[in-house]
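note to self: dont lose this again. the chain is below, predicted strucutre after it. 208 aa total, dont forget to put it in the shared folder this time
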Amino acid sequence: KLPGLTQMAMQYMSLGSQDDLRQQLIDVVLRRACLAEPWPTDAEGFRQRCAEAKPRLGLLAQEICRLVGTVLTEWQAVQKKLPAFKAHTAAVQDIERQMTRLIGKRFVADTPFERLQHFPRYLKAIVMRLDKLRANPARDAQLLTEYTPLWTNYERRAGLLARQGITQPQVDQFRWLLEELRVQLFAQELRTPAPVSVKRLQKMWEGL
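---
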């Protein structure tokens, strides 16, 4: 039982089918219910893990569906708002690229759950950015100029690591700090879990 699945599937329609979404939701529920260390090492441990997980499935399904429903609702809000800002080409293109990175066909299953929990705030930050954009486009352009070199550095490194088949946790972490930096720059009223700034991230990048 996945609460709100029909409504979510309608919002998700441009990305994939209801079955695609259902399977991802089930994957995340099972992962959170069952796949935690220490791993079962024998048949008895496996049975015990299943028994412990079973009563938690319903609550986890509710929690995950509530989160994904909120993400899809916020995502739709941005999509509805964007066409009115076509005159602000650079900002709109930047936001469209950001949304493509965050919300793809497999965003539910492929985004680490601890990151997915922040998606509603990231999307709210985009709405707030758009609200401010019309009043002060020069400020938005300046902030984007400060942000872009950091993203470009990350993108180059991530592309290189992907081609080499290497995972580097610090680079992955940096990617999400860049998402937090967007909140700090464009919608600082929403707050970030830890302090971030262009200077802090520049220094961190030099360390990497």
